[in-house]
């Protein structure tokens, strides 16, 4: 095993524009931009080159757990809990469509080859035509909430559920092709290393797992990674490193190949978050790592890793 790299952590900025917990982050039209949303119903666009006030994109009447930006058409999909999907043209500042999905919490949204994939409460999974907003398939694939979606290289997607399952769906036939009991309870975090076809999962059980997903799901490694639930996982742009966000108030930085922890970002040492860390984006803009929290703040981290 190689020696641990030296990791220098600097907190670049903290955004405090939200009035309630910040639940989700989404990349924007270029690496310097990102969106955030949360319990206050606000969707805000931030600029990493300008740490002044963000730009309010939308304000809705209920909480938001999920956003999905489509750069090809400059449209942001907002998953408004219990009120469905809202599509917003960013530069034009105008509505581009909406779709009611029933009175459901919306936990994740992904877009792939003209399809909108939506993971909702009560195990409901939607496949929607992006152009027409027609629902192509609506199915209940778990008896508990669906938390995250990750699209794989073979034109399937993996959906993480609160019953601990990974549910694999073929995006041509729309049928379930595999189901794996991955964790003891809710799977909140998914991240896909496309070159090696390895899926990382993080759960309420605080464990981080590596899965070979070339043919089904084969467990490679299981790591006791945090004190409490792992809420999110995101790769460094190089895919040599990744970060995990946890209910234990920390962000942890890991080496992918060595499968080992190399840095902990917390309140005591780095002015980290006061409460649960909910979502991460590791951007290409100066390699900044962005985290958001129940403490209503968004932190920007400069992480210098020296081998």
From TrEMBL:
The keyword GTP-binding does not apply. It holds the Pfam family WD40. SUPFAM superfamilies: WD40 repeat-like (SSF50978). WD repeats lie at residues 15-50, 180-221, 223-264, 270-307. Keywords: Repeat, WD repeat. InterPro entries: WD40/YVTN_repeat-like_dom_sf, WD40_PAC1, WD40_repeat_CS, WD40_repeat_dom_sf, WD40_rpt. This is WD40 repeat domain-containing protein. It comes from Reichenbachiella ulvae.
């Amino acid at each position: 095993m190689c020696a641990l790299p030296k990791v220098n952590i600097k907190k670049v900025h903290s955004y405090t524009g939200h009035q309630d917990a910040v639940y989700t982050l989404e990349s924007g039209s270029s690496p310097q931009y990102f969106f955030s949303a949360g319990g206050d119903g606000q969707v805000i666009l931030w600029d990493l080159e300008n740490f002044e006030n963000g730009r309010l994109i939308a304000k809705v009447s209920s909480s938001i757990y999920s956003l999905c930006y489509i750069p090809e058409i400059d449209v942001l999909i907002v998953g408004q809990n219990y009120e469905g999907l809202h599509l917003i043209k960013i530069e034009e500042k105008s509505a581009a469509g909406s779709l009611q999905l029933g009175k459901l919490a919306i936990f994740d949204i992904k877009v792939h080859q003209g399809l909108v994939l939506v993971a909702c409460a009560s195990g409901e999974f939607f496949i929607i035509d992006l152009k027409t907003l027609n629902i192509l398939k609506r199915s209940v694939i778990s008896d508990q909430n669906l938390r995250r979606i990750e699209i794989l290289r073979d034109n399937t997607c993996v959906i993480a559920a609160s019953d601990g399952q990974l549910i694999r769906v073929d995006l041509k036939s729309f049928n379930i092709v595999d189901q794996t009991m991955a964790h003891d309870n809710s799977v909140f975090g998914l991240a896909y290393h496309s070159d090696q076809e390895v899926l990382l999962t993080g759960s309420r059980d605080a464990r981080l797992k590596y899965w070979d997903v070339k043919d089904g799901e084969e467990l490679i490694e299981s790591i006791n990674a945090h004190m409490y639930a792992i809420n999110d996982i995101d790769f460094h742009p190089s895919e040599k490193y990744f970060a995990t966000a946890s209910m234990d108030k920390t962000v942890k930085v890991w080496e992918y190949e060595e499968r080992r922890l190399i840095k902990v970002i917390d309140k005591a040492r780095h002015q980290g978050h006061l409460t649960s860390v909910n979502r991460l984006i590791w951007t290409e803009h100066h390699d900044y790592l962005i985290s958001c929290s129940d403490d209503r703040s968004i932190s920007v981290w400069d992480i210098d890793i020296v081998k």
